[in-house]
Amino acid sequence: MLFGVSVGLTIIFFLFSWLTNPGYMKNKKTDILSLLLKYEAYRVCPECVILKPDRSRHCDYCGSCVAVFDHHCPWIDNCVGARNHKYFLLFIFSTLLSVLYMTVLAAAHIGITEPVYKYSLFNWQSEDLLFDIKEVVCVGDFILALIFGVPLILLNSVQVNNFIKGKTTNERFGFQGSNKEPLKQRPEGVSSTVEGDFTKSEDESRVDHKKSSFIMNCKAMCCHNATDSKYNYHPVAIN
């Protein structure tokens, strides 16, 4: 019963993670040259033709910039971003519960029946053979559960820490997150027509959410990041 419930939840959260738009941002109406003349190059995505918001990144697999980009997950064939990050966390957590439950069930059935070697080519007992087959299957399930369980535990640990710290995997382990040198600021005298302060470096722009408590960080990662104007694209008016 419990195993069926955990598997059912895993399928539901997988569908939500797979089908939910993670926060794609595109804009083909603005001229890329006009953006580059007005703003610093590191703020402009030439593929999506947008002025990138804070904490966004272009995904080469999806071909689009993603708001609050975490990583591209091959398990769900989708990016993990502001809008589906909570579903991804629930997906991997329910998957881990299913694997752990399968491990316990397999371990409980291993060794219940003693190995029987009474059957041969012309003399064998079907019940003994059936018990042996069940035990072999349980051993196989136990090994597979261990193989998938260890990386799942590590993945869950990383994502739970992400929510507690209010940061994404890209920010914690990616190149931009580990880069301590400040990025070049926009030239003085250039006024921005989009919401948010684009004169700060990417490291400086992340100071606010680092200082929050873990409860506020989790709340932001689950709900607020998907609608926060600082992390979502707004069309740029080029004068």
Q: If you had to describe this structure to a student in words, what would you say it looks like?
A:
The protein is mainly alpha-helical. The chain has one domain. It has helices at residues 2-19, 32-38, 85-109, 126-165, 169-173, 175-178, 202-205, 207-210, 214-222, and strands at residues 24-25, 44-45, 50-51, 57-59, 64-66, 71-73, 78-80. The strands form 3 sheets. A 3-stranded antiparallel beta sheet has the order 1-5-4, with no helix packed on it. A hairpin with a 4-residue loop joins strand 2 (44-45) and strand 3 (50-51). Helix 1 (2-19) packs antiparallel against helix 3 and helix 3 packs antiparallel against helix 4 (126-165). The protein is elongated and about 75 Å long. The N and C termini lie far apart (63 Å). Mean pLDDT is 78; it is low at 112-126 and 177-209.
Task: Report the strand count.
Answer: 7
Q: What is the domain tally?
A: 1
Q: How are the strands of the biggest sheet laid out side by side?
A: 1-5-4
Residue share in helix: 40-55%
Listing every helix as H and every strand as E from the N terminus to the C terminus, the arrangement reads HEHEEEEEEHHHHHHH
Number of helices: 9
Distance between the termini: 63 Å
The helix-and-strand class reads: mainly alpha
Strand content: 5-15%
Residue runs with pLDDT of under 50 for 5 or more positions: 112-126, 177-209
Main beta-sheet strand count, sense and barrel state: 3 strands, antiparallel
The residue-averaged pLDDT reads 78
Q: Please state the CA-atom Rg, rounded to the nearest Å.
A: 25 Å
Shape: elongated
